[in-house]
Amino acid sequence: MGKIPKTPQGSPAVRATRFFVFGLLLVATFLMVQAPLAHASSGEGKAAEGGESAGVALPAHVFELEKVVTSIVLPQDRMIRQIAADVWLELTAVEHRALVSRIQPKLLNAFLRDFQRYFYRDTKYRAEKVEKGKRGYHYEAPSLLTPPKPKLDEDGKEIKEEPAEGDEAKSLFSPFKPTTDRIIIGLQNRLKATCDKILGPGIVKSVQIRGLFDQWPNER
User: Fold this and answer.
1) Distance CA 2, CA 19 (A)
2) How would you write the chain as a 3-class SS string?
3) In which domain of life is the source organism classified (predicted)?
4) FRET partner for 3 with CA separation of 20 to 30 A, picked from 21, 69, 97, 196?
């Protein structure tokens, strides 16, 4: 068999090959960088500033916490229950966002303890009394309310109503409908008490559970 002729290093074929390989590496690097950026920009687990939910713009005084994820273990029953929840804070003023953002890790740790203590007895009850495959619990909050349309003057500009001297400032619009789920009502009240303890009273107007679901790995 004849020898395969060597291609000179400076030939057009070599340069084209190198350029092609370099292009592939560049595209791969770009995709690797864009993947985490897309996840980070999705809003999951971050404070939502001017974000939207189901087409409704979120007011600036609504703070979306990182997702709360925890596990409840029953050693004697050999059961594990995994819970994930979306928790939003309705603040009394937009200025409180900086405080909540700074202290968010401490607040989330306290929420984890609240979740574990709150759902422990419920988990034990479901493990012992509820039939396998029917123990799961899922909650979705009511849809958000749309804010009222602003009053406009003759030129179509928004009329900003200033409170009269001695009158209290007008409260911020709340986009949340009250829930009728007793489990969620009790949990929200407990988390609100934790907020008042850590952040101080008068910072958080309400705690809103926007979604909660669990799964039981032993039942798979």
Assistant:
1) 30
2) CCCCCCCCCCCHHHHHHHHHHHHHHHHHHHHHHHHHHHHHCCCCCCCCCCCEECCEECCCCEEECCCEEEEEEECCCCEEEEEEEEEEEEECCHHHHHHHHHHHHHHHHHHHHHHHHHHHHHHHHHHHHCCCCCCCCEEECCCCCCCCCCCECCCCCECCCCCCCCCCCCCCCCCCCCCCCHHHHHHHHHHHHHHHHHHCCCCEEEEEEEEEEEECHHHC
3) Bacteria
4) 21
Cβ(103)–Cβ(198) below 8 Å: yes
Buried b (16+ CB within 10 A) or exposed e, 108-132: beebeebbeebbeeebbebbeeeee
Q: Give the span between the Cα atoms of 184 and 22, in whole angstroms.
A: 55
Q: Specify the pLDDT at position 209.
A: 98
Q: Which amino acid is at 100?
A: V
What's the pTM value of the predicted model, to 2 decimals? 0.70
CA 89/CA 208 separation, integer angstroms: 6
CA atoms of 67 and 48, how far apart (whole Å): 12
pLDDT digits (tens, 9 = 90+) for 52-107: 455 567 899 999 999 999 999 999 888 999 999 999 999 999 999 999 999 999 99
Q: Token pair 């980070």 is at which residue? A: 40
d(CA 200, CA 182): 26
Q: Which long-range contacts (CB under 8 A, 24 or more apart) does 34-37 make?
A: none
Q: What does the pLDDT read at residue 56?
A: 62
Q: What is the pLDDT of residue 8?
A: 52
